[in-house]
From TrEMBL:
It comes from Lentilactobacillus farraginis DSM 18382 = JCM 14108. InterPro entries: Kinase-pyrophosphorylase (IPR005177). Keywords: Kinase, Nucleotide-binding, Serine/threonine-protein kinase, Transferase. It comes from the Bacteria. It holds the Pfam family Kinase-PPPase. The keyword Ligase does not apply. GO terms for molecular function: ATP binding; protein serine/threonine kinase activity. This is ATP/GTP-binding protein.
């Protein structure tokens, strides 16, 4: 189970892990989003909290808004709002007791390796 605020690479990481024969779910989180009760049924060692820096998230979110033809400067891309989201995420991760991974300077493959190693699973990639 991958948890993270918007644009922390949950979906691409989920797809990568699924291609490594792992069953994966991802859940967007934020102060205004509901956390389903089913999360309490997942073992904490199978939950991974993803983080990024406010600055990188702001840049990524601004690019996303521009790609939609919208104004880049919105509450969605504002670093102050992003800090609130990240603080919420950190508190949730501490409450759950899950492994937290800052993806700011990591590739999808590096993050996947951290997850697979924490689960004591094979981290070798598929061969042609």
């Amino acid at each position: 189970m991958l948890l993270g605020v918007s644009r922390t690479s949950k979906t691409p990481l989920s797809l990568y892990l699924a291609n490594q024969n792992q069953r994966v779910a991802n859940l967007p989180i934020g102060p205004d989003l509901h956390i389903p009760e089913e999360l309490n049924q997942v073992k904490k060692d199978r939950i991974f909290g993803l983080l990024n820096t406010p600055e990188k998230l702001s840049k990524i979110r601004k690019q996303r808004m521009l790609s939609y033809g919208l104004n880049a400067d919105t509450p969605y891309s504002d670093t102050k709002n992003i800090r609130v989201e990240l603080d919420y995420a950190k508190k949730l991760y501490r409450k759950i007791g899950c492994l937290t991974i800052n993806v700011a300077n990591k590739s999808i493959e590096e993050t996947a390796t951290i997850i697979l190693e924490s689960l004591n699973l094979d981290t070798t990639t598929f061969e042609d």
